[in-house]
Amino acid sequence: MLLSLLNISGVNSVVECKLSCSVYMALIPILCFSFFLKNTCAPSEFACANGQCVPGRWRCDGEPECPDGSDEADATCTVKQTCPPEKFDCGGKCVSLSWRCDGEKDCENGEDEADCAADARSCSAGEFQCRNRKCLAPVYVCDGDDDCGDGSDEEKCSPPTCGPHEFRCNSSECVPQPWICDGDPDCADGSDEWVGRCGGGSGRLAPPPTRRLQCGAGEFRCGSGECVKLAWRCDRDPDCKDKSDEADCPLLTCRPDEFQCGDGSCIHGIKQCNKIHDCLDKSDEAGCVNATKCEGPLKFLCRNGECIDGSKVCDNVKDCKDRSDEPKKECSLNECLLNNGGCSHICVDRPIGYECQCPAGYKLLDKRTCGDIDECENPDACSQICINLKGDFKCECHQGYEMDPVSKTCKAEGKSPYLMFTNRHEIRRIDLVKRDYTQVVPTQKNAVAIDINVAANRMYWCDRFQHKIYSAYIHEASDPSRHVTLIDSHLHSPEGLALDWVQHNLYWTDSGDRTISVASADGSRRRVLISTDLSEPRAIAVDPERGFMYWSDWGIRARIEKAGMNGVDRQVLVSDDIEWPNGITLDVVGKRLYWVDSKLHLICSVDLNGAHRRVILSSSERLGHPYALAVFEDRVYWTDREKEAVYSANRLTGQDVTSLAEHLNDPHDIVVFHELSQPAAPDSCNLSGVTNGGCDFLCLRAPQISEHSPKYTCACPDGEELSPDTRQCVPGKLITLLTSQSDSMAETTLSSLLTSSPEEPAVSSNTTAEHSPTQVSSTTPDSLSNLSHHCKCGSVFPIVATVVFGVVCAGVYLVYRNWRRNSTKSMNFDNPVYRKTTGETEEDEIHIGRTDGLAGHHHTYPGPVVGMTEDDSRNTVTAGSRTDTWLPSYAGTEWHLAS
């Protein structure tokens, strides 16, 4: 092509060209570059027959990506792929060997599930094999529960014989002797707590144990002991375990002109089927028949509003009363013959008029022009990664996952995943591929929360009855002597547990004292992280990669919140359409948070910023009282306390609900064990050879809000604070002062005030002082409120008072008692008489911080960022009118303290 263009006939030929020499010289490199560019693809790419380049991994993957289909042509894919030992050969394609005989056809020809009955392995020597070839631990045979699912484990069973240190319940099961008459029924029939056996009167059953001594003012006490919201009483939806919240409820009847909602409430009849949800349960819009629109090629809308069948148009019969279906000029006109009717792609002629259409993968933008459909906007389009293409899309998987050739879902590589869940007196395990069903931890009193460290093969759990948090290696957990007690004090009612598997810290919620706490994984270092604005904290989850923790609170204002794993940057994620958020879990691959709502019978999800909310499953039949959930691959797993079972469903569609374990005994928490469920990441607290980040006590992962965010911050134990080096811990001066001198504080303050001259007038609010009043307030809801304090007259002594019309003593006592809850008020001291003002202008605001070369980056972190959270405080010493305040801060972060 280039030779003919230049008309070169020989070495000494004369170039005859109308182009100037300069244009000719510039044209040569352009032509050469375009010639080679057209035919060259990168080594990692596949060159389609038409010259287009696509990623090499798309070659022979069963889906044509080249416009000409050459990437899937027989000539391209004739060479069979050689499978490595860890793969199974499907006849030219390779899949994970662990998918062999797992009950799902992963090969297109189904070879991975062929001859599985002959190849089926027998159970190990210590296991029981069910008729359906499921393997059970011996402890589940003849225990009164159908654990096999076919009843074979409960056949030919003799009455159980209890050991010498066990008690036989009237319902035949055996429980340890120490559990008798401990106030907590352990037998299925409660016979271990019968009053006749335990004393205290006649009768059978002792009063059931209560979670708390008293329910709150806005709560209802169930007959089974727990507390639920008073608003849930008589709403036709049982929330108590014994359903006592729906007992003795008046029968609601509606007037003849009213509609009765599913919950029994009444609305006016005209509000039914008005396309507005007037009933709380939305039952007023259920089953409504919408008017059929006169649209599409099968319908024709007459000019007078009539709707007739499209086949009756231009048939020489006037079917419209206004005869608009038989226009003479238009019936014989084909608009598509002229300029394709103005359509960008496909023009379809109609009896009257025409219609523009688009090929697959495109949509009409303006009734004429077709544009590409972004299929990736649909979260159900792909299992993990969605790549939008012109007129099409492509699904891919993250590293460590493999695309199933048949289902097109992403499945984990490596070992088989398995579930671990608490079952009150024990912790069980189910292999999700082999379906082995075993006991991991026996003889627990009330195991409610669990988490794991996959890399270390270690598990953590808490027993709410014992008020303790334990740990053990999973392979040793069946031996109680190998259990390590991590936390055994100041636990009231632990609800949720989450392990930071990277920085090796343990987080938990406690609904008894309404706190969220953190401790090192060995339990040696511990502190309260959040203690304010918590009502009923329940589940907790952590994201070590991004440095955030998430928790649910089903109290008066039910919500799901998140904060940094060091307690800063607290924010509400979900607060609307939420009632009883029990369990939460993170999909670290998909970057979404899932939760179950036991009141609304929902499984929902949002992204990690609280947006793009989706309802996965909504069903009171499928979701009785869901408590906890876990997500892995394309499945969501949950426990149900009402149905006493473990279920799973598709996490994208909510379909294919499957029962995994039934006949349980109050199941609670659930987790998935697999190496991909806890992705590896660098330990921020042990970088560059610095152990524990150089922190004296705890090293906590900091939230990664921006590129300037710190990797970690230090934290001190309750009652201590960080020294100026932000690493060492020193006694908290304010806390020490308040605790050690609490008895003498009121006397000292009152004495100093009584010795002041009563005749001296108070300084008015508009009096000009040498220094303006100083206003200090905490910007975090997680930290303790500070007190403006300490007048120094020769020596420093504390003055904490709110003087209302001279009632000094009562004011001092009130401030001291409520100092945790009150907002910080600014105090201006001008001895010997003082005044109190509340600053509300910009002049009252103090900016304390340092920029260190990062001026302009002013992200405000609520609360003390380096280890100073709820039980820490800031030290402010006031002498006359001078205030010296020290606060730790991030380098480059400016603090804004104002009331």
TrEMBL record:
Main location: membrane
Localisation: Cell membrane; Secreted
UniProt family annotation: Belongs to the LDLR family.
LDL-receptor class B repeat placement: 457-503, 504-546, 547-590, 591-635
Any Pfam family matching the protein: FXa_inhibition
Superkingdom to which the source organism belongs: Eukaryota
Ranges where the EGF-like domain occurs: 332-371, 372-411
Composition bias, Polar residues: 763-781
Cited PANTHER family: LOW-DENSITY LIPOPROTEIN RECEPTOR-RELATED (PTHR22722:SF15), LOW-DENSITY LIPOPROTEIN RECEPTOR-RELATED PROTEIN 2-RELATED (PTHR22722)
Stated name of the protein: LDL receptor related protein 8
Disulfide bonds: C41-C53, C48-C66, C101-C116, C123-C135, C130-C148, C142-C157, C162-C174, C169-C187, C215-C227, C222-C240, C234-C249, C254-C266, C261-C279, C273-C288, C302-C320, C376-C386
Cellular component GO terms, alphabetical: apical plasma membrane; extracellular region; receptor complex
Keyword field: Cell membrane, Disulfide bond, EGF-like domain, Endocytosis, Glycoprotein, Membrane, Receptor, Repeat, Secreted, Signal, Transmembrane, Transmembrane helix
SUPFAM superfamilies associated with the record: EGF/Laminin, LDL receptor-like module, YWTD domain
InterPro entries recorded: 6-blade_b-propeller_TolB-like (IPR011042), EGF (IPR000742), EGF-like_Ca-bd_dom (IPR001881), EGF-type_Asp/Asn_hydroxyl_site (IPR000152), EGF_Ca-bd_CS (IPR018097), LDL_receptor-like_sf (IPR036055), LDLR-related (IPR051221), LDLR_class-A_CS (IPR023415)
Membrane spanning residue stretches: 796-816
Gene Ontology annotations of biological process type: receptor-mediated endocytosis
Protein's UniProt keywords contain Transmembrane: yes
Membrane-topology descriptor: Single-pass type I membrane protein
